[in-house]
Amino acid sequence: MARRIGILGGTFNPVHIAHLRGALEVAEQLALDELRLIPSARPPHRAAPQATAEQRLAMVRLAVASEPRLAVDDRELRRDKPSFTIDTLESLRGELAAEDQLFLLLGWDAFCGLPTWQRWQELLQHCHILVLQRPDADSEAPEALRDLLAARSVNDPQGLVGPSGQIAFVWQTPLAVSATQIRHLLAEGRSVRFLVPDAVLAYIQNHGLYRGQTDS
Ligand code: ATP
């Protein structure tokens, strides 16, 4: 039987409750066999993150350790090239059966940035795209995505058929939490308790991460 695998890529700098809750809710709603969080090594679109890749990975591992529906995939950290999602999808596809369904989860902000991604028009050859609402982001889709949305979106995420090729919007509990906000709070010496899992908070404290940094 075809497997249903979801992936959520990100900087996870640090991983927070909106990543985790969104991932878990989608995994449940769509009855996924597995949902993998994939930390990016050197995000192509961003300045270098303040925590090292290994520290970001360690925090994601701690965050999902007690949740069997969520897993961590560290392939982007094992690669010595920049982390382009298309490469990750091709690599994952090489390990799956042709009929397996692959779902790429993207927050609305990430989805709107798609036209700047490497070989973005090929993404849907490998996966379906699930767009997560993001209460802290703009609402207009960029012009470049209008045709794609018109051609590929389906109303009901349960109605995504086949291994790849369609786009659906999913509803998950809106949480206006961002890693940027968390880094800012920590830089100001304020608490981020309940915005990240306790194990992640302990890791941040034990490693003295994000202290006194006020850049993004
Ligand atoms: P930063 O504030 O550093 O930009 P972030 O909080 O956006 O980080 P990322 O690691 O960049 O976190 O996000 C990974 C994925 O999770 C992206 O697809 C992003 O859109 C999504 N995401 C992050 N936060 C939320 C949120 N609050 N609601 C829905 N999706 C989110």
UniProtKB/TrEMBL annotation:
GO BP terms in the entry: NAD+ biosynthetic process
Keyword Membrane: no
Keyword annotations from UniProtKB, A to Z: ATP-binding, NAD, Nucleotide-binding, Nucleotidyltransferase, Pyridine nucleotide biosynthesis, Transferase
Coiled coil: none
EC class: transferase
Any one GO molecular function term: ATP binding
EC number: 2.7.7.18
Record Gene3D superfamilies: HUPs
Record domain Cytidyltransferase-like: where: 7-183
Pathway the protein takes part in: Cofactor biosynthesis; NAD(+) biosynthesis; deamido-NAD(+) from nicotinate D-ribonucleotide: step 1/1
Reaction(s) catalysed (UniProt annotation): nicotinate beta-D-ribonucleotide + ATP + H(+) = deamido-NAD(+) + diphosphate
InterPro entries recorded: Cyt_trans-like, NadD/NMNAT, Rossmann-like_a/b/a_fold
Role summary: Catalyzes the reversible adenylation of nicotinate mononucleotide (NaMN) to nicotinic acid adenine dinucleotide (NaAD).
Family: Belongs to the NadD family.
Protein name: Probable nicotinate-nucleotide adenylyltransferase
